[in-house]
Amino acid sequence: MQARLHDRNTGKVLVEHLQIATTFSERFWGLQFRRELPPRAGLLIAPCNSIHSCWMRFSIDAVFLSPDGTVLAVKSNVRPWRATYPVWGAACVVEVSSGTVATRSGDRLYLSLYDLPAASRGKPPSLIAGLLKA
């Protein structure tokens, strides 16, 4: 499943190609072993309130979101083989290449879904339902 990540105030697309990881396997593998992220790409992991960067080959920025899409914390330049402390109230995290998304605590973000599998068309996972634009 793919999505775009938008700024709720401006409508600007922050991440054009956002892979959504909600199953154990998708969340477990995350960005491990990838050489890089393509431009304007990222990974949304839900549920998630902390991350590690073991087995990663590049630094990332981690944007922790509340269930309604409010940015609770931004951890910049998380290098390989590091971990973050849990972020209280975070429902998910968006991982992007370092320096590619300009957002800060308090910003409001939302998702627009595309490329839904046929079996789930029209039924986004409940874990991200609050992030969809109302």
From TrEMBL:
Pfam families: DUF192. This is DUF192 domain-containing protein. InterPro entries: DUF192, Saro_0823-like_sf. It comes from Anatilimnocola aggregata. Gene3D superfamilies: Protein of unknown function DUF192.
